[in-house]
Amino acid sequence: MLAPFDVSYMQSALLAGLLISVPCGLLGVWVVLRGLAFFSHAVGVATFPGVVLGLGFPAVGPFAGSLIAAGAFGVAVSSVETDHRVRGGAVTGLALAAAMAIGAVLLTTVAKVSAPVESVLFGSLLGISGLDIARCAVAAVLAIGALALLWPRLAASAFDRAWAAPAGACPARTDALLLILLGFTVVTALPAVGSLLVSGLLVIPAATARLLCDRIGAMTACAVALCTAEVVIGLVLARELNVAPGASIATVGGLGFALAAAVAAVRSACSRRAAGA
Amino acid sequence: MTSPRSAPDRLDEGGDQGPHAAPATVTADRLSVAFGGHPALSEVCFALTGGTFTGVLGPNGAGKTTLLRALLGLVAATGETTLRGRAAYVPQLAMVSEAFPIDALGVVIMGRYPRLGWRRRPGRGDRRLAADLLEQVGLADRARSPFGALSGGQRQRVLMARALAQEGDVLLLDEPLTGIDAPSQSTMLDVIGAQRAQGKTVVMTTHDLGQAARECDRLLLLNRTVIGDGTAAEVLTPEVLGRAYEAQVVMLDGGAALIDEGVHHHPSRRGAG
């Protein structure tokens, strides 16, 4: 079992993966419960112009560039969404297209770089740097701290927004903090799993946990556990089968979800039969 | 834009309990609310005292929900509202997520957070209180059931228990009896009666004129403004009802019934009422 981790790049990948599993699992719960899966996927993809700028201007660097792009994307979506005629996926979709278009223009005009498209899209966990690992640790600490402080407000806002506001839970401010934290986590996870597969760590484990758990505490613990299991198994498979780790991690997550869905279906069939008998 | 009022649930922190000379606990003075230029409430005036149970009636879109939300300071309003003491709120059941992973006890414990300040975590005393409140609404055996697995009536009772956990002085209930089973309704009414007996001010919106006439001390008939305010005998007259509902009204057994003329008085799922 431990044999695949006998080389240092695998150990770095494991460390980064385990660290980023913590914020992804914790925040993924709220992504699933609040229906933010498309937004979190889009914010990752929409960092593209930031990555291009970061590569074009080494003083900025891709991480800071991505953070700026993610922030701009979040602000754009949130402010357009206040118009109730265009809500939800529509705004996210149009901002995503805009970000990709800006990135494409910047790529050929300002930055004049050839972006390493594959690693932007799918990540390069096996080439992860010490700085990336440190950022994953920061994201983990931030997510633990913020959720420890905010979870009652998040729960109230998600469960019953009409009640949360007069009860003093400040749902709007809580939402804004959740989105900021989400943006930071996605940007931090990009070097590891890439913009197309970040949902593999953010959405899949939490969605699987939701199928298995009926209480928020259990769901959170389950999501983090599934996330870490996904990373470990995915890395082992990547080494054994010689495939890209981002892809094998997301595949393991998808199989886990399918298994949980099957278990949930069997369980509900059994309880229906028990109720009928 | 907003009227001069402070956050309703922060007033009188640990203040005096019980009405001494029955001062007004909830008042509105020329309260007006508009959404996008359309008036939702205009020049609403009333004063409620502790130990009373008021029913807010009116057709769909009359501004019943908006009135409660204006009293809570949630919508931009002109005029003045006061709310003495802490408010506890039960929103319409349809506004609450059924899919959220939380059990009945968890929902009631949530009601302790406004008192705890959202940073402190509920202690053993809070949990015991929440369990007692679940028992009060007849759901002690469903404490660990997921909220989404409960029936409509049971969910409504859980939300009521959460409001009681807030230990408010004013209870604002948005259609708490709409669309729920008869046993749940009678449990809710028992709980409301007990709160009234403790000197709390209870305000409920409803579509059921007959039930409101039987159960409430006072009726407030609303159609963007106050059309009728008083006892059932004063408010539920054909003239007053006709003005509020703009439909033909017939009286049955001393109660009122409506003959619909394009105006439906079915319980609405929308929060606009």
Give a written overview of the molecule:
The complex is a heterodimer of chains A (277) and B (273). Chain A is 81% helix and 0% strand. Chain A is mainly α and 277 residues long. The longest helix of chain A has 32 residues, at 171-202. The mean pLDDT of chain A is 90. By secondary structure, chain B is of the alpha/beta class. Chain B has one domain (22-93, 104-259): 3-Layer(aba) Sandwich (Rossmann fold), CATH 3.40.50. Chain B has helices at residues 64-71, 104-110, 113-116, 124-136, 152-165, 182-197, 209-215, 232-235, 238-245, and strands at 24-35, 38-49, 53-57, 78-83, 87-90, 170-174, 201-205, 218-222, 226-230, 248-252, 255-259. In chain B, α2 (104-110) packs parallel to α5 and α4 (124-136) packs across α5. The longest helix of chain B has 16 residues, at 182-197. At the A-B interface, α7, α8 and α11 of A face β5 and α2 of B.
